[in-house]
Amino acid sequence: MHIHIVGIGGTFMGGLAALAQTQGHHVTGCDAQMYLPMSTQLEKLGITAVAGYDPKQLDSVAHGADMFVIGNALSRGNPLVEAILDRNLPYTSGPQWLAENILRQPNGENTRKVLAVAGTHGKTTTASMLAWILESAGFNPSFLIGGIPNGFNISARLTDSRFFVIEADEYDTAFFDKRPKFIHYRPHIVVLNNLEFDHADIFPDLAAIETQFHYFVRTVPVSGHLISNAESEALKRVLNRGVWSDVETFGESPASAWRLGSNNAVFYLNKNVGTLALPQLGRMNQMNALAALAAAYHAGIAVNKALMALAEFPGVARRMQIRAVVNNVTVYDDFAHHPTAIAETLKALRQQVGNARILAVFEPRSNTMKLGTMKAALPDSLRLADLVFCFSGGLDWDAQETLAPLGRRAQTYTDLDTLIAAIQREAQSGDHILIMSNGSFGGIHESMIKSLESAALNL
Known about the structure:
By secondary structure, the protein is of the alpha/beta class.
């Protein structure tokens, strides 16, 4: 079967392309913009992806396609979408195609045991940790993750294992299906990492997101398991609406079923079951690991084996990833884009580098940040940085005014080259440049590295 994926450059749809190819399908696709890490992954897989949404591709790369899988970034008015509708060509959404063709079969046979990781923050890292634990235990899991887990070096794979780990996103499914993606997955084990307001472009408030999470909870069977963050008031409200599955909490409070104590001791039902020795820094990563540990336990993996796997977890691309060290200046790439994630990322880096200077570089790129919904939280989220550089191109709100509480520490720029030049002028030996964005950021990482190399004598 020839499958043409419209919006193939996204992490979910790019992963779907890898799964479909493994099943033996001929896969092609298109997107407005291709950026790392999915552009590299698709190239390695030999999947043809063209730029743009010109309807002419229906008579070229997509000619004769048996199914068009349309991503949620596409809307009515898109020329290719309109052409698909006008020609009455077969189409579906990514989550629905995944559910019907991989996660379960119409006759109920070969149905996989789905382990889903949901929440506002940490989905990619927690799902990667869970897949890593299962792999280390010999379970050979299939997975679809919204990033590239180091150690696997691919965002998705399909095996003959019963276990399928998926990053379960609450964002909507497609222009014709406004339900969250995770409604399609029907998991057996669910991690509810945390819950805050996000996706302001589709949800009016946190209460609306909580409703969708409760719909998700309703899909978990009685024999299933819910692993929920004990410290999230929003998740407590979700579960108080009704729950039909076993629930275990995780956190640092004494009431948590899975608890992280002093010296990173791990307790399950108040019994010390081992020590968490995680290579990655920061409390958020520790909570991610605790949640993955609990989910793995209910998948049948002994706690000691899971802890041994976590001690060797190699991390995830674009999560505090060191891109280069140039004349003692370290450049990091991180996916943080929500104020909470920005604050946690800076806190983890500060713990690592001590009093060394941190130059925080960020792009308010997500739809929520572009709308300015959470701009008031930005100054406090960036307080641990010594200098702050914001790329404000394309924003409808005044980033300089928003960051005014940071005083002279904050600088805003609408031109990327000017931004890079300003960072290069400020950089000193021993600095840590933390670049945060959920997109390609105009290729700033490579440009920054080249700029530092050319200015090496000034450092």
